[in-house]
Amino acid sequence: MSYDLKAVIARRDLLDVVTRDLSAARVVDLPHGLALLPMTDALSDALTDASRARHSAF
Fold this sequence. Notes:
This protein is of the alpha+beta class. It contains two helices and three strands; from the N terminus they run βαββα.
């Protein structure tokens, strides 16, 4: 069995700022002040929605 994980790993405070207005974002805490932001289908759709302004953080 295999898995394909698409995610962003960064400092927790940075991910909190860039995901503030993204209801589809789910930030998961990791050790040492880092966090993981899984690139789910819902988050991908929110970031690539052509009817909305492009999200500058990404």
